[in-house]
Amino acid sequence: MARKMYEAGTGSPAPAYSRLTLENKKTRTAYTFLALPLLFFLGIRIAPTLYAFAMSFFKQSGPGYTLSNYEEMFTSQVFWRAIANTLLYVVITVPFQLGIGLVLALLIGRVNRFKGFYRTFYFLPYITSAVAISWVWRLMYDQDNGIINIFLKGLHLPAQKWLHDPQLALISVSIVIIWQASGFSMLIFMAGLESISKSYYEAARIDGASRWNLFWAITWPLLNPTIVFLSVTGVIGALQTFTQIANMTGAAGEKPAARSTARSASWYMYTIKASTILICRLLPRLPSFCFY
């Protein structure tokens, strides 16, 4: 049976317009709270993107619009080398970040004492300024006075031109990225491991499962959501790599050949064709935005 609204103290049904007024107020309040973040999103995301889209057609000299920016970008060897380097960063850094993070999480999970210390110690590089870390590693990579080459000389091995050699520059930067990001993977893997019920392991041990069987039959399948999350965030981070490249190989003293083998698409965007490459990076993502 439908309920009726009654006016206070009268016992008679409330008029229909009062119910509509109350519902209208709730609706207006809801739309107001939804509009505020929407306006904020339009101001910091949509409007700059539309402006960048318009700028990508501007002529470099003089008024008017042109497609020469896109033509120059797609015919530039520097652009395609930057794209290839970016893909290499993804292929190199993401698997190692996840692998090292998982190993650290498994090892720290077996520690009974100082677990918080180890967790903080390995996570600290991730929350440290990327600029500061890049310059510390740049000093360590120094050809003459770097601690790495000093160590190699102590072993009677030849010193390496870590940031000057085109064959080593990209690998050297990748090592820094892996070292800095592995702590984040470790922390997320530890959360994933702690969410796995211990009863699964106890039941498997009763059936005679070894540690290797426990890992592949229980740990690995139940960590799949965590692995997917870290893979996605790792790929996004690798595609946006810029700070380490700019600070470690972007100085005037570095050889151009070494810089070209290390710079990424983000470096190209920030230094040469910002608006044009921004639109090219945005277009492949539009289908996923529309889908979700």
From TrEMBL:
GO terms for biological process: transmembrane transport. The keyword Thylakoid does not apply. Keywords: Cell membrane, Membrane, Transmembrane, Transmembrane helix, Transport. GO terms for cellular component: plasma membrane. The chain crosses the membrane at residues 33-58, 78-108, 120-137, 168-193, 214-239. PROSITE patterns: ABC_TM1 (PS50928). PANTHER family: ABC TRANSPORTER PERMEASE PROTEIN, INNER MEMBRANE ABC TRANSPORTER PERMEASE PROTEIN YCJO. This is Sugar ABC transporter permease.
